[in-house]
């Protein structure tokens, strides 16, 4: 099977190319340009990883998200519909559905993104779903939660450095649950979709178990051979300090506290049901591999 893959220089792309070593893979580097013609040649499937990630520093212009995440996806999907390729895999995001979650996020949740990142991803999803699908073709819109793995330098790496320095985690009184996604599980799901006859649709991708931030601190400390340092400072006191931070412009403010302590649980029941298989890596084993990579 010949695959065309966009976004191969990113973390997910590098890992996916390695995972799909038995396939014939061809990287495709694209930037959105109006009236651009995309040529897919004789590919059997398209995997669209590239896009503009959520900008935590908030310096990006809104149109940048819509150009990279919607307009470019539209051009690529239009080319797919006219080509001989049979499968189109679009890597969207759970943030296309919701920026905050009460309970557990499922594919049945009515999308209501708040950021330009989430809105642009949702626009791309809606465009793909709105187009008549020729016989013999399939599309898969994957909504991964926070992806991690060896070599990833995201938020887990920041928490790792925090624990390694022996700094006590001061928010242990907050009970939150967050879903994560091991890069190997994402690659496994994509490979299964390529090789099998799976119905088109939207599928969330997450590890089986959600973990609290306190559990993450414990896991990191365990793999470092350290004793976890968790401070059970009363939540009411922390919230009052955060409100003071809003006024005094301190590092800890209400917005940052919410990001650190909120829950975001994602169901993977739908994708597991259609695959009829368990994911190869447990949540704890995947996190262990990521943590040990920071150590190495």
Structural topology:
Elements: E1 2-6, H1 11-19, E2 24-28, E3 45-48, H2 62-82, E4 87-91, E5 104-105, H3 116-130, E6 138-144, E7 146-148, H4 155-164, E8 180-182, H5 183-195, E9 201-205, H6 213-224, H7 235-248, H8 254-261, E10 265-266, H9 269-275, H10 283-295
Parallel strand pairs: 1-2, 1-3, 3-4, 4-6, 5-10, 6-9, 7-8
Helix pairs in contact: 1-5, 2-3, 4-6, 6-10, 7-8
In brief, what are we looking at here?
The protein starts with a strand and ends with a helix. The protein has 10 helices and 10 strands.
Structure, described:
By secondary structure, this protein is an alpha/beta fold. The protein has a domain at 2-144: 3-Layer(aba) Sandwich (Rossmann fold), CATH 3.40.50. Helices cover 41% and strands 14% of the residues. The chain is built from ten helices and ten strands. The chain has helices at 11-19, 62-82, 116-130, 155-164, 183-195, 213-224, 235-248, 254-261, 269-275, 283-295; strands at 2-6, 24-28, 45-48, 87-91, 104-105, 138-144, 146-148, 180-182, 201-205, 265-266. The strands form three sheets. A six-stranded parallel β-sheet has the order 2-1-3-4-6-9, sandwiched between helices. Helix 1 (11-19) links the parallel strand 1 (2-6) and strand 2. Helix 1 packs across helix 5, helix 2 (62-82) runs parallel beside helix 3 (116-130) and helix 4 packs across helix 6 (213-224). The chain is globular, with a radius of gyration of 20 Å. It starts with a strand and ends with a helix.
